[in-house]
Amino acid sequence: MPGSSGGSEPTFYETLGVDEEASPAEVRAAYRERAKDTHPDVSDAPDADRRFRRVKRAHDVLSDERERRRYDRLGHERYLAVEDSHGPGEADPPDPAGSGAGSTGTDHGPGARTNPAGSSDPGAGGAAGTRGARAGSTTPSGAGTERGGDRGSRRDRSGDAGGSAVGSEGSVGRVAYGLARWLKLAGALVDAWQARLGPAGAAIALATFAAYPVLLASTVTPLFPTVVNLLVGLCTFAVLGYLVVRPAVGIAVLGTWLLVLPVALTVSGVGVLSLGGLYSLTATGVPLVLCVATLAGASA
User: Fold this and answer.
1) What CA–CA distances, in Å, run from 105 to 45, 100, 136, 255?
2) How far apart are CA 53 and CA 58, in angstroms?
3) CA quadruple 196, 198, 203, 206: dihedral positive or negative?
4) pLDDT per residue over 232-263, tens digit each?
5) What is the pLDDT, as a whole number, of residue 15?
6) Long-range contacts of 56-59 (CB under 8 A, 24+ apart)
7) Which residues lie closer than 8 Å to 27 by C-beta, 6 or more apart?
8) Hey, how many other C-beta atoms are within 10 angstroms of the C-beta on 208?
9) Which of 20, 37, 41, 191 would suit a FRET pair with 100, their CA atoms being 20 to 30 Å apart?
10) How many CA atoms lie within 13 A of 48 on its CB side?
11) Pairwise CA distance, residues 34 & 51, whole Å
């Protein structure tokens, strides 16, 4: 039976006190229990160190799935003989039954070893290595370095070109994505504006459009007394509040005036960059932005 020793020395399973079908969790639990009794720090027995090393070795083998399969396949006595003579992980000795699994390397268990090319022939790796060494000895010492440097520089140049291409594509993609979002928002605003304006809103927008420049001019003109300027200013502020609350009407009125103002200021001789021109543009543009923000928040 796998793992049985047939001798006086207990098997790893017997050392931990588990059966041969024990799960990895059961193996770890048994190891912790045995370590509490055998560890030299807690046990006063003269052979505590040797007993603990045996418990730890049993745990190391049985908790490793590959090594456990190898232990079960070889048996306790033969596994110890292989480990003591070759060290852990070495190739298994020939099978006494004559199968040749250990010597030919056809055994694909955890103890089998393969060459880097994936062949199970133990001589293939050595032969390939010998041929490689001979070929390397006939190569001029500087040729490999030069070829390696050329290949490295070509890879660097191609990597730089690829990175630049990817970076430019990423920038274009971000710009396209941002433009698509703005177009989507503009479409939603237009739809909301058309849906909310209506016939009544259009009439109010037309009346406010005609009165708005008069209100702006009357608020700051020196032709009226200061009290009149203040009263007209309050009316202008109330109209702007109404336009912000009714963003569909406000966008129609203020948006149209923002387009017309530069032409009107230039034709009237006031000038766009004059004090009166900046006042008119500010008093129109700022409320327009508030109207757009209100409509965007309502349609989100």
Assistant:
1) 44, 8, 28, 85
2) 9
3) positive
4) 989 998 988 888 888 888 898 898 988 888 88
5) 92
6) 56/31, 57/12, 58/12, 58/13, 58/15, 58/16, 58/31, 59/16, 59/27, 59/28, 59/31
7) 16, 18, 59, 62, 63
8) 20
9) 20
10) 12
11) 9
Dig out the tokens for 26 from the structure: 């059961």
CA 72 to chain centre: 44
- Of 42 and 22, the one with more pLDDT: 22
Phi, psi of 283 (to 5 degrees): -65, -15
- Please state the domain extents for the chain: 146-299
Amino acid at site 167: G
CB atoms within 10 A of CB 115: 17
Mean per-residue pLDDT of the chain: 73
Q: Which residue has the tokens 């149209």?
A: 256
CA dist., res. 268 & res. 219, Å (int): 18
Structure tokens at 87: 């060290």
CA distance 78 to 89: 14
Count of residues in the chain: 300
The CA distances from residue 275 to 156, 278, 280, 281, in Å, are 59, 5, 9, 10
Single-letter residue type at 213 = P
Measured CA to CA, the distance from residue 42 to residue 55 in angstroms comes to: 15
CA angle 111–114–118, rounded 5-degree value: 140
Q: What is the residue-wise DSSP string for 17-76?
A: T--TT--HHHHHHHHHHHHHHH-TTT---TTHHHHHHHHHHHHHHHTSHHHHHHHHHH-H
CA distances from 104 to 78, 95, 99, 246 (A): 18, 10, 9, 90
Place of tokens 């009165």: 211
